[in-house]
Amino acid sequence: MAKALLGYMHSDPQAQVRLAAENARLRARVSELEALTLKLAQENDALAAAAAGEVLDVQNDLQPA
Fold first, then answer.
1. Could you read off the pLDDT tens digit of each residue along the chain, which spans 65 residues?
2. What ranges do the domains of the chain cover?
3. How far apart (Å, rounded) are the C-alpha atoms in residues 1 and 53?
4. The model's pTM
5. Residue 46: how many CB atoms within 10 A of its CB?
């Protein structure tokens, strides 16, 4: 049964072209999402560092002289 299905699927030459195009599209999308994830992680780190700096400034202001 599996051989029959594989033989049937590979008999359509356009199927491989469509699969290759879909694979390329998905790889490009994954690359875009990885780049976006890296950018957002860097922005998050910068915001966290800025927030930590603000918390330290407020704590220093509250310390008795």
1. 566 666 665 667 788 899 999 999 999 999 999 999 999 999 999 999 988 887 666 566 666 65
2. 14-62
3. 65
4. 0.60
5. 10
